[in-house]
Specification:
Structural class: alpha+beta
Distance between the termini: 47 Å
Mean pLDDT: 79
Number of domains: 2
Largest sheet: 6 strands, mixed
Shape: globular
Helix content: 25-40%
Strand order of the largest sheet: 1-3-4-8-7-2
Amino acid sequence: MSSEISIKTILSEKDIIEDFSKKQKNICDKLNTKQLLTIEEIISIDPTCRWKMGADHCLDINTYSEQNYNSFTIRNYQCKSCQIFNEITDYNHLVLPQAFSIDGQKYQIESYNHVNLVLNQDNNQILSDRFTHQLLLGSLLKDNQHISKIIHGFICNYNGTLFREKCKIGFIDSLITYEKILENGKRIDGKVIKPSIIIDILNQIIDFFQLMKDYNLVLGNINNNTLCFSRSNNKVIVKINDLKDISLNIEGLRIIPKTFWDNRKINYILYEIDLGDSLKINIEPGNFNQHREYINYRHSGSSEFNSVINIYMVMLKLASNRLIFKSILDDPEIQQWWFSLWLPNVYPKINARLIEIQENKEEINVYPILTKYQLKKKIQKIPQK
């Protein structure tokens, strides 16, 4: 069975997108007017559905003889979301497909088993589980080109399913195989990404996080799924793909994933020391409790340096990729910008650590690096060639 399926009817395509668009508008309207939201207003839920794609307890079609198997029987066990999904796709198996297409745009399908739904809203914050949190942020940021769009999310049989825009290039490692952005259009040993492309990617990241400074956006964790890359008219577009660990302010509310908030009072020690042109994150190396407290502190929106720390996190993640790092260092102007990102005594140490990570094929953990050195408070864009 192919892992990708295609849309059968335009009418059903509109059903699924328009239904979720109405939910997204309602979410924004309610937050704008300081009204309380309910889980059902964010997610389509049917706990009695027994035909959830990929669910542990779904009805096994193999238990039915051919003469008893018909669409009416199946529909009696399907919630609305499963019915819509069956109608708009060629899907007729118990195994959940990985992706489907609408008018040439691919959407990936993400499954969440046994979702424990949480939505707590008071006067100044909204706490929710990671599944609900993504749908909430996806609604609030749906018009931002640097956020991967979510077009539907539903719960049936206590399992969650998200339909999210699939980036046309892919994740960081996919840049290596996307030959259009490589010098001479072909990757061989020693090749690098075109300087103009690298500059545009880095500047997009700076622009996005500086723009989101007004929202005090926090990028909680960063991994291989956090960033993805799409394309539009041969331009590479950087997108935030994973919203589970992001928090932000909107309409006077702090929206926080429950993972990073345990309702205990933060121990407000001096977590960040302002040194004029630079700052130092004040955490003892290896102190897990302080590290956890600092993450909590950032998600509370208390830090005034969240935007610049987000940029450093993403830049380190990108530079941990050998091809991207080589592309940065091989161009004099980009290399000069990379040098300007760090204090002079820090620069060689950062490069040495990144080379070590690449040679050992490690997954970079950015916080031990960020908490070890002073960071600059102002990050300039790179002049476009």
